[in-house]
Amino acid sequence: QVQLVESGGGLVQAGGSLRLSCAASKSIFSFYRVGWYRQAPGKQRELVAIISSRVTTNTADSVKGRFTISRDNAKNTVDLQMNSLKPEDTAVYYCYALDLGRGYWGQGTQVTVSS
User: Fold this and answer.
1) pLDDT of 16-73, one tens digit each?
2) Which of 9, 27, 85, 97 stands the most exposed, by the fewest C-beta atoms within 10 Å?
3) Cα separation of 103 and 40, whole Å?
4) What is the model's pLDDT at position 66?
5) What are phi and psi of 89, to 5 degrees?
6) Using CA atoms, how far apart are residues 9 and 27, in angstroms rounded to an integer?
7) What is the pLDDT of residue 107?
8) What Å distances lie between residue 79 and 44, 96, 101, 103, 115, CA to CA?
9) Within a 13 Å sphere around the CA of 22, how many CA atoms are in the beta-carbon half?
10) Residue 10: left (phi > 0), alpha (psi -120 to 50), or beta?
11) By the 8 A CB rule, do 5 and 107 touch?
């Protein structure tokens, strides 16, 4: 079992920044895939940014150049730095990990960007 706990969400004005953090209950170095998804009201959950096979990073086109994913193996955390936020970034952001063929989700953290 893996527990993922997100933090860092909140309310911010358009153009502002937030940093999300996901703390894992075990070594993130062992995860085949770890990263962030988001779900806006009335929409499907979508990929934001993810690290695969420990080295490959994929970032959604809608956030490229604004969001950066990073991990700290010593702290077992995966962060998402979000800059130049837009109202359309408003969503619940979920941490995700794929470990030994099983997927795990955090409880989500709300990000609201006001115009």
Assistant:
1) 999 999 999 999 888 999 999 999 999 999 999 999 877 789 999 999 999 999 999 9
2) 27
3) 21
4) 98
5) -85, -5
6) 23
7) 97
8) 22, 12, 22, 18, 25
9) 31
10) left
11) yes
21-37: pLDDT as tens digits = 999 999 988 899 999 99
Question: Cα(82)–Cα(70) distance, rounded to whole angstroms?
Answer: 11
Residue with tokens 């860092």: 8
Instruction: Tell me the backbone φ, ψ of residue 9, rounded to 5 degrees.
Output: -70, 175
Say if residues 26 and 20 touch (Cβ distance below 8 Å).
Answer: no
Residues 6+ apart with CB under 8 A from 36: 20, 22, 47, 48, 49, 50, 69, 78, 80, 93, 94, 95, 96
